[in-house]
Structure formats: C-alpha cells, structure tokens
Amino acid sequence: MTKTIRFSLFFLFLFLSSFNSKSQNNIASDSIKSKETCCSQVKLNVGADIMSRYIFRGTDFGNSPAIQPYVSLSISNFELGCWGSIATNSFYQEVDLYAKYTIKKFSLMLTDYYIPSLNGSASAPDTRYFIYDDKKTAHTFEGCLMYKGGDKFPLWLMGCAFVYGNDKRWGYDLKKDTTDQSYYSSYFEAGYTIKIHENSLDLFAGFTPTAGAYGDGAGIVNLGITGYRKIKLTNDFELPLKASLIFNPQISNVYFVLGVTL
Q: Which domain holds residue 79?
C-alpha cells in the first residue's frame, strides 16, 4: 500500500511539474508574441530633404539652399515627429515638433514651430528654446485640420491657424503691434494629385483671409505645381526627386525649387 501511494505521489508530482512548465512556456510565448505585435505596429521614419530653397506657403525662409531632416514615430492612427530646416549659407534655422491623429480621411495636427531668427535678427523678445511665455517666446503653435482623398479622388483640403506664441508684431495693425496681441494668422489650401505613369504632379493653391504671417491682407499667397520622379541608380536604390514652380500673387514673386530626398 505504501509503495502504491509513493508511486501515485511521484507521478502526480511529475504531472504537476510538466503542467507548470508548459504554463510558464505559454506565458513566456504569449509575452514574446505580445511584444512582437506591439513593436510591429510602431513605424519609424527617418530621412532628409536637400532643397535649393525653403519655400513655405509662398514665403522664402532663409534665402539659401537648405537641409531638412525629419524623424517620426507612428502607431495605429497617431504620429509624433520632428522636422527641421538648416540654411547652408545664412543664419536661418527651424525646429518643429508635431503630433498628428488621423481618422479615415481626416487628420488633426498640432505643430510647434521654433524659429529663433529671421533675416539675421531675433524673431522674438526671447529666443531661448524653453521660454514659452506668449508675449516673449520664439515658439508658434498651430492647429490644422486636413482632408485627404483616396487614389480615386486625390483631392486634399487643409485649414490652419496660429493659436499661441510668436504670431505678433507683423506691422499691419498698430493696436495689435503695440500691445503684443496675436494676429491668429490663418492659411487655407486646396490641392489635387495627378498620376502620370510612375510619376505624379501636385497642383495647389493657398489663401490667407487676413493680414498676418503670410501677407498684408487677404489674398492668394501660394499657387503652383510640384512634380515628383524617382531616378533609378541601382537595382536596390532609387533617388526621389521633386521640382516646384511656386507663385505668390500677393507679392508678385515666383520661385523655382529643386529637391532630393535621402
């Protein structure tokens, strides 16, 4: 009887040990799969554009060729990123942080533009990075809402407005300028993409409704066309190339810009 009990206990011990080992292996396996699933959903994008000029919404920033690095992390519908522009033969520099959330064809974006100088002079009373006082800071915060259609109807519509920070002292409104009030500069854009074989063209028009960051009054400030092409250098590498012809009717100016993406 004693031997029978001992054998029974021995086999019970082996069974429980085997069950426990399998359970731990399953838990570890599930944990690894969970981590792999999580990491596979995160997308990292790193690169840079080299541009003959930095033209933003119809305005030349830096009057110089520019290097424009970027990095972003996205998971599901949410994206965080940083974009910058460094002039190669002037003192202009810009560092922008942004957060973007996309639902179907609509995107909501908040951008923090940090531009410490314009044309060699300070852009704000205090150009230190960690100064966020509304009347002193060199940061400008902007909210944007964008609609982007699909391949069958590749139209995009965008509306943006500066909501806080260095959107002041533009020289168009004496009361605002002397009291450091914001202009709440706004910009609206419509564009359409045309596919031509393996290449594409973007047609766009941008409008500002009031005086502020984009001009001295309401008007079209950004009108043009951008062409995209990929040049095959090797079997494994293509060099993306883009060229833009941009008009700013409000100031009667034109820009022809070339850029490559690395």
A: 36-261
Beta carbons of 230 and 236 less than 8 angstroms apart? no
Q: How many distinct helices (H) and strands (E) make up the chain?
A: 2, 16
- Whether 130 maps to a domain, the answer reads yes
Strand residues in 88-132 grouped as ranges (E)? 93-103, 106-114, 117-118, 121-122
pLDDT of res. 2: 45
Residue 161 inside a domain? The answer is yes
Helix (H, G, I), strand (E, B) or coil at 6: helix
Query: Per the domain annotation, does 1 fall within a domain?
Result: no
User: Phi and psi for 140 in degrees, rounded to 5?
Assistant: -130, 125
Confidence (pTM): 0.85
pLDDT score for 36: 53
CATH number at residue 215: 2.40.160.40
Residue 20 lies in a domain: no
Domain count for the chain: 1
Q: Which residue is associated with the tokens 């080992």?
A: 21
- What does the pLDDT read at residue 142? 98
Phi-psi region of 40 (alpha: psi -120 to 50; beta: other; left: phi over 0): alpha
Give the mean pLDDT of the chain. 89
In the structure encoding, which two tokens stand for residue 205, read together?
A: 């028009």
Of the candidates 206, 247, 249, 243, the one whose C-alpha atom is nearest the C-alpha of residue 226 is 243
Question: What are the tens digits of pLDDT across the range 59-75?
Answer: 999 999 999 999 999 99
Question: Within its chain, how far is the Cα of 135 from the centroid?
Answer: 26
Confidence of residue 235 (pLDDT cuts 50, 70, 90): confident
